[in-house]
Amino acid sequence: MEHLAWQRTVEQHREAVLCMVPPPAVVRRALDEALGLVLAVGATAPADLPGTRASAMDGFAVRHADLVQGGTLPVTLDVPAGARPGEGPGPGSAARIMTGAPVPTGADTVVAVEYTDIPRGPVPLPHQVRIHRVPPLGDAIRAAGSDVAAGSVVVAAGSVLDATAISALAATGHAEVSVRPAPRVRVVSTGAELRSPGQPLAAGQLHDSNSFLMAALARSLGHQVDRVSLQHDDAEALTAELPRLLHGTDILVFSGGASAGAFEVVRQALGGRGIGFGHVAMQPGKPQGLGVLDGVPVFCLPGNPVACAVSFLAFVRPWLDAAAGRGGQQHRVQLGQELGGKPGRTRFVGAVLREGRGVPAAARQSHQVTRLAGLDGFLVVPAERESVAAGEELGWLPLP
Question: Where in 256-398 does DSSP place strands (E)?
């Protein structure tokens, strides 16, 4: 089969990418394993939280009618956090109560310990407490269900489970949740010129950075990643390795070997297997490959590091987000200074954020990997624009 050639815009290529997203899957996960995943089924509160009236602070539970400025009340019982709701205090008396403890049935107000002559800390139960300041009726009492009422939604379907959502689910008794699983990612860099970091370099050789770049990007998005470095340009060897590379992953991402040169190992090995190669009207990142092999989506990105980073953010990330159930959020940012260039291709310009505006970094070329450090993302300049004035809004590809 011949290589499938095409010419696409960025939008057309992204649409082709999203057509490869599999049907949504739902799995059950323990809370400890759910961080960063998308909730597939909304979680509701099975009961009121708190389940009973509770004290909002350390102090004394009393009947408000018994309070007198500067008066004293006998203390007849202690109510620690975790105690069962009970009766008391009786008329004309007080109960020492801890934050979060259930307010006894007979009390209607909690007097903060700061309003009394009893110091904080583990002191013996006093015989009486002097009230220096009378709070309003009902003060410092949390009503049952004041956090969340039974049957209310705690975390909505489609929410990304961050630390605060995990906490809310735990507080309402959810040990497991139904989530969209995060796709497993395998990234592969190719090239006979590559050597692993730490190895000495001969003339013409480079340390492999793209596999680390792609792996770090995928991990920062919450995915399990397997990183592979193929330090050769042997199409037959790559063909023999394909079953191993396709096994146990949900997406396979190559960098390098996708252009039209004489030693483009990825294109030579995959072009006859239904993976299409062509050009996307973008700078950097023009040569791209895309398709499905043995049920696994395959992305073939350029080998130049900046082009690899842009391509990952522009195409691989949308697939990962959609497959994981995350919405396709479109980011925009105001341009911090005038930006010029040649129209005809969508341009991705490295930039930093200053006071909320995207400021283009110094001019760079797609091989300058160290220039990626310190960027906040890439400004997206439409293909038809020659120049953009400061203050105009542009698309924004944030670095995670």
Answer: 276-280, 282-283, 287-293, 296-301, 332-335, 339-340, 346-354, 357-360, 377-381, 387-388, 393-398
